[in-house]
Amino acid sequence: MKLVKKLSVCLFLMHMNIGATILIVGPSVIKLNRNYTFVVSNILGDTNDDCLLNVRLEGLDNKDHSTVFNFTQPVHVKPDTNEMVTFNIANNLPNGRYRIVIEGKQPSTSSTVNIYEEISLYHPRFLDDTRVFVQLNKPVITPGEVLKFRVFVLDADLKPASSHAKSVSVEIYDPNRQLIRQWCNVSLHKGIFENQIALPPISVLGAYRLKAMENDHILNGKVFEVRNYDIHSIDLNIYPMALPLGEHQALNLTVEVNNYVGKPLRGNLTIISSNIIDKSQTWYVNGIQQIYLPFRGKLRMLYDRSAVSLKLTFTDQFTNRTVAKELFVAVYDSKHKVTINKRILSYHPGSPFTTRLKVTYQNDEPAENVTLQVVTKGPDDVYRQNCTSNRNGDITFSMQTNKSTVIDSFQVFDGNISIARGWFKKVDGADLLEDKFIKVELLTRVKFNRMIKLLVTCSHNMTILLYYVISKENVVGAGFFRPNQTNRYSFQLLMSEQLIPRSKIIIVTIVSKSLIFDDVDLSIDEFGNPLEIKIEENIGEDGVDPGDEIELGIRGRPGAFVALAAYDQRLMQQNQDVSQIFFHDISFANVWNMFATPYDRNMIFPHSSKAKLGIFAVVANDTNRIPGLFEYGSRGILPDAPRLGMPGPYRTDFCESWLWQNLTIPSSGRFELITAVPHSATSWYITGISIDPKYGLGIVKKAATFSTVRILFILDHLPPSIKRGETILLHFTLFSNLTDEFEATVTMSNPKGEINFIDRPAADKSESKIVAVPPSSDTPVSFLVQAMKLGELEIRLNASVMQGIISDSFKKIIMVHPEDIVVLRSKQMHFDRDTPSDQSFDIPLFTKKKAKNTSIQLDLTVYPDRQSLKVLQNTCNLSLHYDGFDKSIQINSNIKQNITIKSIPNYVRHVSVIVACSSAQGVIKINWQYRLNLIHFEPRFNLQITKLGTSSKWMKQLNICCNFVPRKTNNYSNSTLVEVSIPIGYAMDSHNVVEETTINPISRIEILHGGTTLQISYNHIGDEMTCFSVFVYRRYNMPIKRPLYIKVQDIFRPELNAVQVFNFH
Known about the structure:
Blueprint: E1 11-17, E2 20-26, E3 35-42, E4 51-60, E5 67-77, E6 81-88, E7 97-105, E8 115-121, E9 131-136, E10 140-141, E11 146-154, E12 169-173, E13 179-183, E14 192-198, E15 206-214, E16 217-226, E17 234-240, E18 250-259, E19 266-274, E20 281-286, E21 288-294, E22 305-316, E23 322-332, E24 336-340, E25 344-347, E26 353-361, E27 371-377, E28 382-388, E29 394-399, E30 409-414, E31 417-426, E32 438-442, E33 451-462, E34 465-471, E35 474-481, E36 486-494, E37 502-511, E38 514-523, E39 532-535, E40 549-555, E41 561-568, H1 588-594, E42 657-658, E43 662-664, E44 670-676, E45 682-692, E46 696-699, E47 704-708, E48 712-716, E49 721-723, E50 727-736, E51 742-749, E52 755-757, E53 766-773, E54 778-787, E55 791-801, E56 806-817, E57 820-833, E58 839-844, E59 856-864, E60 876-882, E61 885-891, E62 897-904, E63 910-916, E64 920-933, E65 941-949, E66 955-964, E67 973-981, E68 986-995, E69 1002-1008, E70 1013-1021, E71 1026-1034, E72 1044-1050, E73 1057-1062
Parallel strand pairs: 10-16, 25-31, 49-56
Antiparallel strand pairs: 1-2, 2-3, 3-6, 4-5, 4-7, 7-8, 9-11, 11-14, 12-13, 12-15, 15-16, 17-18, 18-21, 19-20, 19-22, 22-23, 24-26, 26-29, 27-28, 27-30, 30-31, 32-33, 33-36, 34-35, 34-37, 37-38, 39-40, 40-44, 41-42, 41-43, 41-45, 45-46, 45-47, 48-50, 50-54, 51-53, 51-55, 52-54, 55-56, 57-64, ...
């Protein structure tokens, strides 16, 4: 008898004659620039003859089927031996269809050729064993920030690739798929290419893609977002109080809401939509809340479970910030689940049927002493048996059959609920029943470079036991034992460098002329190049003060290259509910999962010889410090340096990633690093990636984590941007870790006149509020302000208790966009009634499409017609109608009457006026107004700006020219104001303004806001070009490069304007 079997993890070709068996094992994937290895085993037979084979690896052209590659290797396998056969695959393998052809002489036969097999190989055109990982310093970037990245290029063993062996290019594309930066044929240092790109202050917003390429093939990549964002500070967690079951007909959920430092938040939780409720529902949450959600109807179960979808929002009652979340809650039919040994069960009429069941809870913990009912059904008979699980959750089910027994299906019931099912197939002989099994298990922990012990247990006594070692999609080892008719056998293997981080051991034996197998995964949570990062000094529960120094102990292999990175843990929320390609860091799990070898156990020995075979790797997609403390120049002392009588220095470094630097482990294997932490009050994690030419890749398994907090600190809830002139409430939270209640003084400073404090004199440079702070708690505080400048606005806040003994100060920058201006519109109508019937007017409220999405203010006035001979009667009524709103007034000949509506919804675009008079004449005038931002007006000035270099790196020269765009001849602008707002860190002086044209002389020059705003006034600007230049000098560098604003506006007619955003840097 001749039998061919194939394995979906590896390829098994088994040739069986009486007393002779050859087993061939090999991968079904061929890759560029790697060895292709398979094993020929001449062990299973009873003869002592040699096996002679010719193995041919050939490739055929896809079109004409001509041979494009052919390599033949003779194989001579002696009895009781394994022979490993290796083909060296070049990196320029031609494209085509590849196969292995095996032919030769079967042992113990006289035929010259009685073995011939063809095995198709899968050849990914560009796929080799290169492993590429990309690391970013952030997943989301603000325009003007610097994106830093590392590209790790490694071989199959995770060792660094060299530049001469790999030709790698890096490309960055914007959301419009336009290439914005490219690095071609990069040089690799220790297998790493590291670089950065400064995003322009005026950038296209959206998802950008960084790609690592080789010969136009994408090796790997990452996606990052460019947007003006506010890093999440709301941690919303929702989970069931108990296992959700269908019989409950409801969900009992726990909602926990905290900020990023773990303090509870208060606000409204709204379930917007769900498949179990008819309408949205809202609950008030004070840190934690239990909510009960009854189902609107019976859930439809699919495979013993259903999924409840929930879309929720939580709105913080103090800051009005909202976080949205979508989750799915599994609802089960039963709290138990059952795993059947095999879904296709074999039985032979007349022989006992036996199978094993595993009973667990839904969390996969073994369920002990659980009684279930097992039901087998046939066309005519139903057999029921109650079975109880043992302490391990195991049930052995047995039933007798006779020659006429016919069984079709198999079900397991927990009460009335079916929780498992299977199907039967009938086999011709008792020797083919599936009561034969073999099991391999680990007896020791898996550790690198240590012996691991394995135990094999078989249902029958074994005469031969073979094992194969699979690692990185290839056969790397094989062996065999003769257990001498025992059903238990143990052996040992070395967990060598070749087997890490994940590998698989497959064991094979023959029982009653049937081949049976099992496998076990060898997984080690480390690589051959271990790396550890610890914070050396003891850090208490209160963490580290923002801005303090910490000492890191970095342990690794001597000479290993280490790339460090530290991230604000709030960045992790930026990656929620997205694929790994959006995840900015490289985690240990990303690399570890790459070496998983998933397969379907039921397809290991498929009955079809045409089954798709092969090992396929699962590739999971997924330094210099970021400038945070400002790099001040040589022009004077540091801004805001503490002086006598002032609070401590401002916290200014709020970067969300840092410690982006590289180092080499010294011969001691230990590197001590002292570094200052940023100023944010948050939680951090520090990670590292190590590269060694001999031992390959290493990643920190457990990141070093710590928190930066103060005894008293301010947490801001600032928006990324506001509008000039807009009255806005700026929210903050003051946290106290003191054990007593204190009164705190919170002061917002305005030394440069950049804001107005509402309800305070315009000249005030600060506003203070006194708040009570409970022990170990927080209290909100807010300031009502108006921004007075364009561009960057500096927010300064100080809080102190005990007369300033304990205090906190911080300074942050937000963007101020151009203001809205009020647009007035009006319509006038005459009414003339000689009959008692009503007269109606429909009035469209015209607004610009880009008008601010707010309400409209309306004023309606009725005037008597003084020239009319008709007199208004006292019974004359006028009514205004829109969107269900009605308002009426009575009018007569003596009094002017009006209706004022301060707020009409923005979606209302028509109003109706009805006049009910018997005899009258009059005038109805309606005025309405809406708000429109300056940038949405049609430009009425031409603006030209150029940036010129100077002899000093500290100075820039800006030329600005403008002219009026008239709609009529000889039209011009009177009292024109030109305003230039430059970023913080730069300054202008009035004596550095130079008139370049004299036709329209400058009437006034004013420097505001600490030298960051220049206002130039003209008495007249026509269609002639008017120009001036200004010299801008740099005081210090800022980490984020933002644009400048230039605005030209007619003072008396503000709708005549032009606004331009300019890339200043």
